[in-house]
Structures are given as C-alpha cells and as structure tokens.
Amino acid sequence: MNMKKTEPHILVIFGASGDLTKRKLIPAIYNLHHQKLLGHPFAILGVSRTQMSDEEFREKMLEFLPENEQNNDFVSHLHYESIQTSEQDEYKKLKERLDKLKKQLNAPGNIVFYLSTPPNMYPVIPMHLASVGLNSQEDGFKRLIVEKPFGTNLESAKSLNHDLLEYFNEEQLYRIDHYLGKETVQNLLVLRFSNSLWEPLWNHKYIDNVQITSSESLGVEKRGGYYDHSGALRDMVQNHLMQLLGLVAMEPPTVVNADSIRNEMLKVFQSIRPLTPETVSANVVRGQYTSSRIKGIEVPGYREEEGVNKQSRTETFVAMKLQIDNWRWSGTPFFIRTGKKMPTRVTEIVINFRPAPHLLFNSGEEQKSQPNQLVIRIQPDEGILMKMGLKVPGAGFNVQPVNMNFRYAELSEAYLPTAYERLLLDCIHGDATLYSRGDNVEKAWELMQPILNEWENNPAAPLHGYPAGSWGPAEADKLISGHLNGWRYPCKNLSNDGEYCEL
After folding, report:
1. Is 9 a known active-site residue?
2. Active-site residue, from 33, 240, 358, 483
3. Is 257 helix (H, G, I), strand (E, B) or coil?
C-alpha cells in the first residue's frame, strides 16, 4: 500500500445510518487508522435523517469493529449530524457543524463527501452542498464519492453526469467501483506492462480469446424488489465487467496517472464494435434461474423469490461476445459472463493463448485442446494461475497440463487492503486512477443500450432458463463454441457431489 499519510481532512458520510456505512466504510476507515495511514488531524462526520447523538453513533459503529485497544481512540474521531438531506435549508446546519469541526481540528477545509444514499439523492445533495459553498476549494479540497449505479441507461447516465458537473468539476468527482480497488485488478497493469514476457504476446497473434467471468452462488435473497428493476446487465456488466475489459485490453499509458489510464480505457470502449438490433441475439445470451435441487435441498427459481414479478423477464444471467476493432485485438473475441445462483462465487479473467503452430508431441485426441491459459483470479482467493504442458515422467513424450500458481494469501507478511480501504485512501490523496470517469461511464452505457432496447422492445427476445446451481443456459456454450477450451469452469456444478475450485 501507498504508505504516505493523508493530509488533515474531514470525511462526511451521507447515509451514515445505512448498511454500507456500518459494514464496509467504517471498518475500512478503522483499518486505515490501525495501519497509521490517516494523518492527524482527521474526523468522520456521519450525516443522516435518523436522530442520534455523537455518543450513540459511536456506540453503534463499535458493534462492527474488532475488539481492540485502539477502538476508543478511533471512535473519538467519529461525529454525527442529523439533517433532512432533501431540504436545502438543512445544509446551513451542516456547514456550521463542519466549520466547528475545522476549528476544533485546527485544520484546513479538506473535505470528502461520500454519498452512501439511494441514487435519487445523487443530484440533490451536490446541489444543496453548493448552495452553502461546500463545493468551493478556496480553503481546501472538496471531493465527492458517488456509489453505483451511475444511471440505469444511457439517457439517465448523461443526465446524472450533467447534474453532478453543474456543481462539482470532473476532478472533484470520484465514481467508486469497488471491483477496481481489488489488488489483483490493480496488478493487471503491473503484470502486463512491467514484464517483457507478456507484452509481446498480448495481442490477436497469440491470444485466441479472452473470458471475463463473475459468478455468484447466491440468488437475489431479500433484494428481489430492487433486482427485478435492475438485472444482471445493469448490475454487473455495464460497470464492473466493462471496467475489467478496459484494463485487459488497453494500450500502455504514457505515464501511470488517472488521466492517462482512463484515456486508454476510453479508447478501448470506443473501439468495441457496436451491437445492433440485428446482431444482439447472435452475440448476447440472457437467462433466468429456475427451481432446482442443490445438495439435496429444494431451491426456488427467480420468479418464486420474494418481491419478484411472477411473469418477470429480468435476466439473472448474461453472456456476451464482443469484438474490439483495433490493431491489437482485431479478430480476438472477448467473452463476458455473469450470473446468480451459479456453482460458486468467483470473478476471474482467462486469457486463452493460441496453440503451438505444430503439435509435435500430440499422441492423443485429448491433447489437441490444451493450449496455454493464464487465469487472473480477482475474488476470492486472489491470485494468478498459468497452465502449461509438461512431459509425464517415464518413457515417451506424453504431455499433460500442469499449473503454476501464485496466491496473494502466500504473502504472509504483506497487508492486503480491502477494496474500500484502497479506494478511500486514494480519494483522500486525490488519486482518481481507480475511479470511473464520466465519459467512460457514458460510453459503456452507449454500448449496452442496444441490448436493453432489444430486450425491452422485442417480446420475442429469448430468455433462457437454467437450473439454480448450474453454469447457466446451454445457449451460452453455443456462443463460445469453436473457440479454444470453451468456458472455463473452475468448480463442479453444485447439483453434483460437491464443489471444487481450482487455484
């Protein structure tokens, strides 16, 4: 981790009584404090409609922290202010509290505002902050962190960007995607651009296809009402998985900074071949999980979940094939797959290399489909796996695939920060490298919009069922047929005898 301590600052969390604050943000800030990465003085001001005193807020947050002698010191930095966040007049009270905290800390006006709120408040809170001058950087930096979703379609994404930019400039905006805070995601850049082994091979001449998979073993749980208006494309593909694609496919940046890296990612999005109503069905598969038995237990289908429309056509699974029309990737397809109620929770990037031009040691049909494969595991058990062929001991030249792998967990002395720790620290330092930029967000939505339009406007657009606990509908296998290895399946189906995850 970057061991540079932060400047004195105040972190204001809107929605401080919510689940994200308790389970993710406060524990992340606590860990940064524990690692001595928060320079003094600093303060955290929780803001919400719920009536609470500073002491009550501290007591509630203590429930989500490990027992440690540093707890009392940490919670002394926590403060709380109750306001009606939708009412402009209430922000005068917030400004007065912040002015008071600045005097107590004897610190400049460096403030980070974190919107841990429903999306409908994203345009409202910045407007009210600006009404009392809390967007001004005359006395110190002012930064605004916004959680996804960044819109629900292209039109709403453009509208949100317009509203945010009316009161904060792009350099002040930090659109957080916790996937980009994971150590293995950041290591993609180092793996690619600091190793001469990979860069000459990272192109269409040597790579047959690239797969990006993010699967979840859980269903929608108690979020059926929300998810039924979202779906897998909006929830996962447009943001998380498109960002991963951008990092895998981008050209080397001129320097390692926010603008250079995000400029290269934007070029990738601009190079992706747009889908049309005529090409959506041939390149995109959507599915919805159905009832099944998993390890002997009856599991309900998506339409039987609480809060879900019984006639719902919302997708819980998406697989797609994208083509990048540029010099590096022409002819090499990128396959994306995500779904709920699948055999395991895993996110990984798979690089399938082309086979050797002449199979000198091929002595059986089974060896024809064993080219080199690089697996970059994002979660869980973060690490990197390389598959290659080696000779089986004994007479002859029988070849079998073997694994060379590395796990971050093996770096026993290295502290592995959580995604929120890394991203919060980066924002306080003013480093937006791992945050999404407005034009990138809009371009990703532009690529997804033809798919949404086809599904919404064409009642005959296919929706394929797949049994809960499986790897999705059979049509997803047809999408990738003809390409080396097919989909990578790191685990068996849960409906079989158990679960085994490689890496």
Report:
1. no
2. 240
3. coil
